[in-house]
Amino acid sequence: MSGNRSIRITGSLLLTVAIVALVGPWASPYDYATTNLENILAAPSLRDMHLFGTDDLGRDLFVRTMLGIRVTLLVAIVASLVSLVIGVTYGALAGFVGGRVDAAMMRLVDTLYALPFIFFVILLMVAFERNFLLIFVAIGAINWLDMARIVRGQTLSLREREFVEAARLTGVSTLRIVFRHIAPNLVGIVVVYVTLTIPQAILVESFLSYLGLGVQEPQTSLGALVDAGVKHMEGAPWVLLVPASLLALTLLCFNFLGDGLRDLFDARHTS
Amino acid sequence: MSLLDVQGLTIRYGEEAVVDGVDLYIERGESVGLVGESGSGKTQSALAILGLLPKHALISGSIEFDGQQILGASDAVLNTLRARRIGVVFQDPMQALNPYLRIGTQLRQIPLAHGLANKKDVDARVIEMLASVGLPDPERQSRAYPHELSGGMRQRVVLASALIAEPDLLIADEPTTALDVTVQAQILDLLEDLRDNTALLLITHDLGIIAGYCEHTVVLDGGRLVEQGPTTSVFAAPGHAHTRQLLAAAPRVDRGEVPVAAKGSTILSVGDAEVQYRDLTAVRGVSFSLRRGETVAIVGESGSGKSSLVRAMLGLVPMSSGRVVYAGAPLDETVERRAKSARRDLQLVFQDPASALNPQMRVLAIVEEPLRVHEPQLGATERRQRVVAMLDDVGLGEKYLRRFPHELSGGQAQRVAIARALILAPKVLVCDEALAALDGSVRKQVLEMLRSVQEDTGLSIVFISHDLAVVRSISHRVLVMYLGRLVEAADAKTLFASPRHPYTRALLDSIPVPDPVVRPKRAPLRGEVPSPVNPPAGCVFHPRCARAGDGCNSKAPVLRDIAGTRVACHYPES
After folding, report:
1. Which residue of A24, B133, B309, B348 pairs with B156 in a disulfide if CB–CB is 3.0 to 4.6 A?
2. Which residues lie across from B62 on neighbouring strands?
3. Using a CB-CB distance cutoff of 8 angstroms, which residues of chain B are in contact with residue A185?
4. Per the omega criterion (within 30 degrees of 0), is the bond before B138 cis?
């Protein structure tokens, strides 16, 4: 599949999912928190407007799934932005300044890599009140290391490129070199990498939620829904299948989007 | 029946035909040269003969090898043909060898796979083959990995692997393009010596190689065959305009006008320059000066330090000692600390335009950037006018303004790079192998453009090149460097007429002359350029020098003046 087509298809799919997740709940007569113990684990049906059925507390699964998608996407995007901001600044600084500063900064990254981060996140979750913000920050704090390394490597090689030498020779200021010659050539790789870290963040969030360390009831996320669904997988498979397949679809879309963007940027550099 | 009989070969990718109706015959034992500029379809034709084109290539016509149809043949058939009956040498030996296998291991696979030797005596065969391609100590070298060998030695190994099965046809696609000229001469000698009854299809852009080593010449242009015939008659009486154009653009090292030395005052001088990278001394004690309106060429093979020297001169790499004086005033060693006016006056054009232009900027932005820095008072329209005028001067029109570098051909991109360097009307232009990546006809145009700019503005040019033939047509003076040292410096006229240093002589003799009447000389130098990390004692050139005598291996020669030539040699030619 060519880069452009894969971007168009996966991009519009993701957009559709996001819009439905935003608008869908309004169209439903139910809300995400109201329980109805008389109608638990109902099968999907159009008649009583439980499109995806109900869960083990009788809450409408459609509304809850839409909420889960919102939360999951929000967590993933915010976490990726956190890693983007820290990673790009850190990596570009290390790469451009170079020398000892670079060596020191990158040894710090190496050290942080050596720490078992998931374990730390779990500790954080246990130690502090479980709240949304902490999850964003924690996941972003894991992902920025990769971003920093990639950006630093790219900056290092860009700094040695001949067009940068030509600019130095002419007397272009360092600031202008960074913004006109280095930064634009980083955009491609950073955009691609962000689209690839989003699914990573989604997975981490799902993993934490699955362990019961993620978002708190009655709030929910796709990971938490899958966790809940597993318990009733035999009697009411839809409770698992619906959020699980949406999670898979979202991950797949982001991965394809990242691949497509990479092809797009590569083509511009090489063809 | 011809050994190879290609008829009406047409290769298409989608709508575009890269090869269009090519007929080609090779008799047994004959050597055929296939010549053309980039995009002429010469490599595509060779890949078709080998059955190596990608699956989506649409191929029509007929390719018969010894009566066997190659187009549409099964992989099994092709595999027996390749290596057993058709040997191949490509341009880059590093890509042709498996980096994870010892050389001996790779070579022995060929005779074993084709049943030409049994396990017992295959090793002896491999070592014999490696010895015949001139690998020193073949028994030990057969246990080496490709990365442990130099580029020239690697290409010898590839040649050994192509010839070990004693094929009927050897296809060599630009086999020496990646090598230094003195090593190129050695490899070409080997090709000539080892071929015996093997027919040769030699693909190259270099008419000098064709003239020296091929009996038959085939000229391609834009995928079409425009001329073919015996080499002597094609060169003596070219029948097609394109052939005449190629011949006119091929520089000759052995004859032609040499520019007369310019008489201007000194504008730039470098004194005792030394450039050190960790434990490697790239440049050692080089001094030279440049006059107004003069072109000085710096010539040498890889590792000679010519690029390091000019980069240090421009302040892009630090000089460990030495000084640069521009217009009477010393310059700081790093470019960032130099006066703005000096930075404006010294400009550089790089070898590879693809990496010298920012891929994210359009031509307009690239060429106008120096103006933004040095003439900030200009408005956008004025800048644009200046850029358009500059592009006109380098032979590009206004329509290129909005293009990105990847939308330009190599020649166009190099003109953009030259436009960027010239837009501030600098006093000194440094061209670092700036023409090496260009086709002959484009190179000629760019050379003429530089010459006319020089006549109009009195520009001084430092012209770095490994190719003395190109240097001959443009330089007033020539400096020859070897392993970071200046070994000879003279007026171009003097240097080409009577080189004093044996290395200069060897460089001149190594360059193939595009004239079949001039028989190619045997490779004048043995071995390759030693590593600059660990240079030979005494005169660094002595291990490869035919004139080396007493004292050459212990005492380093200093530059001395002999009839207007500065030469560093104990036994210079008189």
Report:
1. B133
2. B7
3. 358-360
4. no
Q: How many CB atoms lie within 10 A of CB B381?
A: 8
**A3-270 is a CATH 1.10.3720.10 domain:** yes
C-alpha distances in Å from residue B358, one per residue of A235, B160, B555:
61, 41, 47
CB contact under 8 A, B373 and A162: no
Burial state string for B386-425 with b = 16 or more CB within 10 A and e = fewer than 16: bbbebbebbbbeeebbebbbeebebbbbbbbbbbbbbbbe
CA distance to partner chain A, nearest, from residue B328 (Å): 20
User: Do A169 and B420 make contact, defined as CB atoms within 8 angstroms?
Assistant: no
- Three-state DSSP class for B508? helix
For the question of an ipTM over 0.85, the answer is: no
Alpha carbon distance A52, B82 (integer Å): 62
Among A162, A169, A172, the residue with its CB nearest the CB of B347 is A169
Spatial separation of the C-alpha atoms in residues B319 and A233, rounded to whole Å: 73
List the single residue in A162, A185, A268 with the smallest CB-CB distance to B350: A162
For B192, B256, B525, the CA distances from B518, given in Å and listed in that order, are 16, 15, 19
Hey, what domains does chain B have and what are their CATH numbers? Answer: 1-40+51-81+217-249 (3.40.50.300), 89-204 (3.40.50.300), 266-361+426-567 (3.40.50.300)
pLDDT mean for each 10 residues of chain B (574 residues): 92 90 93 91 92 90 92 89 88 89 92 87 92 88 90 91 92 90 90 88 93 94 93 94 91 82 86 91 93 94 90 92 93 90 93 88 95 93 95 89 89 91 95 86 87 91 91 92 95 92 93 89 85 89 90 92 92 88
User: Which of A166, A172, A184 lies at the smallest CB-CB distance from B356?
Assistant: A166
Using CA atoms, how far residue B526 sits from B114, B181, B529, in Å, is: 34, 12, 10
Structure tokens at A81: 């932005």
Contact A180 B406 (CB under 8 A): no
Give the helix ranges, DSSP H, for B262-406: 306-314, 340-345, 353-356, 363-374, 380-393
Instruction: Show contacts of A12-18: CB within 8 Å, 24+ apart.
Output: A13/A249, A13/A253, A14/A250, A14/A253, A14/A254, A14/A257, A17/A69, A17/A246, A17/A249, A17/A250, A17/A253, A18/A69, A18/A73
The domain segmentation of chain A, as residue ranges, is 3-270
**Cα A103 to Cα A99, A156, A178, distances in angstroms:** 6, 12, 20
Q: Pick from B118, B86, B175: which is nearest to B512 by CA?
A: B175
Give the whole-angstrom CA distance, residue B126 versus residue B109. 10
Q: A222: closest CA among A241, A235, A236? A: A241
Q: Sheet containing B31-35: give its strands across.
A: B86-89, B169-173, B199-204, B31-35, B216-221, B224-230
Residues 6+ apart with CB under 8 A from A260: A1, A3, A4, A5, A6, A7, A10
Please, are residues B1 and B51 in contact by the beta-carbon 8 Å criterion?
A: no
Q: Is the dihedral of CA B521, B524, B527, B529 positive or negative?
A: negative
Q: Contact A161/B420, CB-based, under 8 Å?
A: no
SS (H, E, C) B471-495: HHHHCCEEEEEECCEEEEEEEHHHH
A-chain residues within 8 Å CB-CB of B336? 168
CB contact under 8 A, B420 and A166: yes
Contact A171 B344 (CB under 8 A): yes
The position carrying tokens 């560093």 is B568
CA-wise closest residue to A164 among B246, B567, B410, B355: B355
